[in-house]
Specification:
- 34% of the residues lie in helices and 16% in strands.
- Helix 9 packs parallel to helix 11 and helix 12 packs antiparallel against helix 13.
- The protein folds into 2 domains: 263 residues, 3-Layer(bba) Sandwich (FAD/NAD(P)-binding domain); 175 residues, FAD/NAD(P)-binding domain (3-Layer(bba) Sandwich), CATH 3.50.50.60.
- The strands form 8 sheets. The chain has a 5-stranded parallel β-sheet with strand order 3-2-1-7-22, covered by helices on one side. A 5-stranded parallel β-sheet has the order 9-18-10-11-14. It has a 3-stranded antiparallel β-sheet with strand order 4-5-6, with no helix packed on it.
- It has 19 helices and 24 strands.
- It has 563 residues and is an alpha/beta fold.
- It comes from Salmo salar (Atlantic salmon).
Length: 563
């Protein structure tokens, strides 16, 4: 029977894994190689190889409500898209609230994880660690949770760039980038247009003489600021939106791309990719279009070769006197402390059942948590994985046979290859809501939408038509949280709070427009519900529908402080 669990890494995935162990009555010991929690989100001026790192200007792409843990809403005063230092504060509050620090051993690196000789019977692991001072120790654990992430091993494909070894300037990977300090007056080429490449190009362009952003395939660029100034990931990310995308994929894709091109024409700006919007994670950047239109960032095609200090591109253009090349070319993944062959590959992906369990283990006592990416926040996915894994450890949930798991991995890989572009560089990608729901279904925590609409229509409508915030997965089942309902009902209030730094008067015309909008949404919602449910089931809802249907999709005027 599993009792002791080794958790490797005290970043966001490691912290929620510790908490999930405690919820199931397990005894976690977390080994963290650095001196503090936070993982990727703790800025280090001088990071050590093998550890994740960020640059000074990083703002999180996901809004606070979407990236929060399911039973720990973010403080209302925090901005919706936090600076990395504020996200670290949230993680620290989480660890303090649930008393996680006493389970963490800092400045201790896991150097090897080995199956015990009696693994077929016990499922136990020998975990060897090394302290900063050099002392080594081996301990036995009933289970292991690997929470080291996938931003630790820079991918630097120098062979793809002939002449780079003779480059007269300086080149570096984005992992090494800290700030624009030292780039004043320089000519900078950034290679790669993922989120890091876009951020670094913008950051450098504020001081550099000129920045060139080189991309092979282009990218869709979205802003953190969505319709009406709301956080972009709170709009169009409901369960109903996901259903419409599934039913009408081509139409929804075209509509999304048309909306993006109304903000700025991606073809005109040299960014238009060949793939559709949902086929690859977009670049989240509020400033890139402005830096392009001002000429501070010039979009270029792929590099053909480098000659001395000159960079030649595939379209025949050449930029001379280049001082710095920054490779924002992603990361490799590696688990050097695990037995070789334990995490076999399936195409470009690790062979992990549900992206968590190696299928070949005789005992399911090792789980990988947070090794995943999606169009959305990682924290809720990692938390769901940890909740699921700990229930498997305890024997409360049973995995399929090895053959069935391998078949599932094969089907999943095939689906992803057809669904997403550039899978080789993004082998960890999943669909946010479907992935969460599939695991929640096994856990018994998937929200009962029909039941909610009948019993608590206020909550049910928000779950169906509002953003799919993590609190939905604490309404029922194992780990049910009494505060989940209130967290859903008040999520828009927490969104509004950071904006209340100056209360602007509401124009009279806005009042009339808001009344019309309320009436339209109320009538539309009533028709929808009448179509789906009987008059008897709706009697309590229809007695006071005004304001309810409006608030579940966007903040009310009272919330913004207009009345």
């Amino acid at each position: 029977m599993v009792r002791t669990v080794a958790v490797i890494g005290a970043g966001p995935s490691g912290l929620t894994s510790i908490k999930s162990c405690l919820e199931e009555g397990l005894e976690p010991t977390c080994f963290e190689s650095s001196e503090d929690i936070g993982g990727l989100w703790r800025f280090k001026e001088h990071p050590d190889p093998g550890r994740a790192n960020i640059y000074q200007s990083v703002i999180i792409n996901s809004s606070k409500e979407m990236m929060s843990y399911s039973d720990f809403p973010p403080p209302a005063h925090l901005p919706n898209n936090m600076h990395h230092s504020q996200l670290l504060l949230y993680l620290r509050l989480y660890a303090e609230t649930f008393d996680l620090f006493k389970h963490i051993v800092f400045q201790t690196t896991v150097v090897s994880v080995r199956q015990r000789p009696d693994f077929l019977v016990s499922g136990q692991w020998e975990v060897e660690t090394e302290r900063t001072e050099g002392q080594r120790e081996t301990q036995v654990f009933d289970a292991v949770m690997v929470c080291t992430g996938h931003f630790t091993q820079p991918h630097l494909p120098l062979n793809d760039f002939p002449g780079i070894e003779e480059f007269e300037g300086r080149y570096l990977h984005s992992w090494e980038y800290r700030s624009a300090e030292g780039l004043q007056g320089k000519r900078v080429v950034v290679v790669g247009i993922g989120n890091s490449g876009g951020d670094i190009a913008v950051d450098a362009s504020r001081v550099a003489e000129q920045v060139y952003l080189s991309t092979r395939k282009g990218a869709w660029v979205v802003s953190r600021v969505g319709a009406g100034g709301l956080p972009g990931d709170l709009v169009g990310t409901s369960r109903l939106d996901k259903l419409l995308q599934k039913l009408f994929p081509s139409w929804i894709t075209r509509m999304m791309e048309n909306n993006l091109n109304q903000s700025f024409d991606h073809r005109l700006y040299g960014l238009q990719p060949k793939h559709g919007f949902f086929a690859q994670i977009p670049v989240v950047n509020d400033d890139l279009p402005g830096r392009i239109i001002s000429g501070r960032v010039l979009i270029k095609p792929n590099i053909r070769e480098i000659r001395g200090s000159s960079v030649a591109f595939e379209d025949g253009s050449v930029v001379d006197k280049v001082d710095v090349v920054v490779f924002a070319t992603g990361y490799n993944y590696d688990f050097p402390f695990l037995p070789s062959g334990l995490l076999a590959s399936s195409s470009h992906r690790l062979s992990l059942y549900r992206n968590v369990f190696p299928p070949g283990l005789a005992r399911p006592s090792l789980a990988v948590v947070g090794f995943i990416c999606n169009l959305g926040a990682i924290n809720p996915l990692a938390e769901m994985q940890a909740r699921w894994a700990t229930r498997v450890f305890k024997g409360l949930l049973t995995l399929p046979s090895e053959e069935a798991m391998l078949q599932d991995i094969k089907r999943d890989t095939s689906t992803l290859q057809n669904r997403f572009a550039c899978l080789e560089r993004h082998p960890l990608q999943v669909d946010h809501i479907p992935y969460l729901d599939s695991m929640a279904e096994e856990l018994g925590v998937r929200p009962n939408l029909l039941g909610l609409l009948l019993r608590e229509p206020g909550v049910g409508l928000r779950v169906l038509l509002g953003p799919c915030t993590p609190y939905q997965y604490r309404l029922r089942g194992p780990g049910q949280w009494d505060g989940a309902r209130q967290a859903i009902l008040t999520q828009w209030e927490r969104v509004a709070q950071p904006f209340r730094t100056r209360m602007a008067a509401q124009p009279e015309s806005r009042t009339r427009a808001s009344c019309s909008l309320r009436l339209t949404l109320t009538l539309s919602g009533a028709v929808l519900l009448l179509t789906l449910y009987t008059r008897h089931s709706l009697s309590s809802l229809l007695s006071h529908p005004t304001g309810l249907l409006y608030k579940m999709y966007s903040p009310s005027e009272t919330m913004w402080g207009w009345k």
